[in-house]
Amino acid sequence: MKKYFFSTFGLLVTTTLIVTTAGCSERRREADPIVKSSEVNPPPVAATAPARALPPATLETVPLATASAPGTTDLFSEISASINNAARDSASQLSALPDNLSRTIDAHIAAWKATGGTSTNMTDSKLALARTDFTQKVRTLILSGDDTWESAKTDALSSLENLRKAYSDLLAGKEKG
Cα–Cα distance between 100 and 103 in angstroms, integer? Predict the structure, then answer.
């Protein structure tokens, strides 16, 4: 039964290949008179008005570090103040701080890289580790009890300062420190 099936199948495949090949070669031998006799002449190009350029998009961002702009706010200082002023009863409100800070840092780094800034793997890694540490310290602060609240707050503030340093090192191009 197997022998009959495979031999019939082989015959079918072979026949199909022969017919397909023969059909393709016949088409190539015969020239299509319609295609040969027609010529495509594009219409003359009319003078067009120059395309209008869109106004440059402005990226509105919140400054992270403000060494030169006294009237702007420093996001790291705002987060530090939020952690300092947080009460144990309202600790759950701190949960969005790491994500908001990461989004803002990402936006600033993207804008910085768009203007020609470059970073190294080492500075990127330092920043990633500092972000992870800050996120963990804020979670520990949220989950801490009354007896560990102050030490968890100090740890979160210290981690925020390390994140600020890693961010400024990345923008400055420093790899050591």
Answer: 5
